[in-house]
Amino acid sequence: MTTVEARPLLRRTPHVLRPDASRVVSTPFLPGVEIEGAGLSRRAVVLARLLALPDAEVDAALIDVLTSFSTRHDDLVGLLDERYALVAPHVEGADGLSLERRRLIGACMSQEYAIESAALFNPSMVAHPDQGGLPVGAVRFVMSVRGVGEGHVSCVELRTGVVDAADVLTFDTPGPTTSVAVRHEIEHSRADLLRQSGELAGDRDDDDARLRGLPASFPAVAVEGSARLAWLASCSYDATFPAAASVDSRVLLPGSPAERNGIEDLRLVEVEHTEGQRGFLGTYTAFDGQSVAPHLLATDDFTTFRMRRLSGPGAKNKGMALFPRRVGGQYLALSRWDRESNSLAASPDLQHWEDLGTLSAPMWAWEIIQVGNCGSPIETPEGWLVLTHGVGPMRQYGIGAMLLDLEDPRRVLGSLRSPLLTPSADERDGYVPNVVYTCGALLHGDTLVLPYGCSDAAIRVALVDVPQLLTAILAG
């Protein structure tokens, strides 16, 4: 009689994604202001030296730039023209300059930024919007990752790949170039800005009076002159990538003052709206160098992204994670507004979030410092499966799990007493040691495809048997 070997509860795959210092984007470089507090810009003297260069040297220098960097950037010439346009109003005799000199000036106002030179970690995974051309049982995915470069500034990158019917993963190899989004101003909601203004410190009376005199929606120019309102308006924007750019070339860089020091830990989820439409939402941590706040990302196609600042007591601190559908007519989210517990938050519009109370607090030794979520809840017939994280002795992180009632997610049906995943010996060392952490897993049949960051140094993948996990959770 042949016995069938039971699947393990969790098994690690051989995949390891490490930081690649050759992945770069081009950002503006204004000489003299690259170091905060360095003093006045050196733009004028640098421009004067560029204008004094002989034509032959200009031509030779530009040829060297195009030869050395064209394979590292899509449309390098267009990029140099954009950078020249940034300083053109300050260039003496700009109308008479040759195209070559303009582009060399553009090159001197540019720099490369290695988006993951310091770290690569904290992924989340969703099904790709394009599932065409796949064999039966296979799923194409999009995985967000957090890259960290110079100055500990975080960005969001994307990876793609396929999980086949046998749960074998294949990651696509990203191309040699990257693509950055163009920021677009949006119409702002008077109601949203009134709520957000009420949460900022300082006197708000004049600003609120001004807001109440505006229509229900208005452009950012309508609040120019008010530092408070202009700052709030700048925190919400749209970002669009060239349609021809591959998904895995797209890099979301900080695009607002609230994100100045990073876009961190995007938790992606595919969401079903009541209108029957589906789209992708994600909450991320906006970091300005001093304070953090959860912001909302929305996209239908991973080409145009809508980035919005949130309000309400449920939208504080770090680690919000949205449910994939409304429950009881409301949008729900996991929240960690108090910095150490898992809570539930609700919203009628995805913008303003009220706190519905604590779901779980630190209890066991492995999570005694703090707990939080590890991505959006996953719907199963038994309940909402929630991956959690806990921090224990020596600041070691572990990944756990709990189950919430489908109809009343305030009701916890069970949770793991011991972590599902902790750092193995070869996962302990990195930028931040002793950490395993995920921002979202993908349900594929009875398997949970769990990408996770290892000590902020690399990304690995584990496969979890969902029926066994649910049984373990309910057993307590």
TrEMBL record:
- What start and end residues bound the annotated signal peptide? none
- Top-rank lineage group of the source organism: Bacteria
Keyword flag Glycosyltransferase: yes
- GO terms for MF: glycosyltransferase activity; hydrolase activity, acting on glycosyl bonds
Q: Which Pfam families match?
A: Glyco_hydro_130
Q: Which UniProt keywords apply?
A: Glycosidase, Glycosyltransferase, Hydrolase, Transferase
The record's listing under PANTHER family reads:
BLL5143 PROTEIN (PTHR34106:SF4), GLYCOSIDASE (PTHR34106)
The family classification in the record reads: Belongs to the glycosyl hydrolase 130 family.
Protein's name in the database? Glycosidase-like protein
| Species the sequence originates in | Cellulomonas humilata
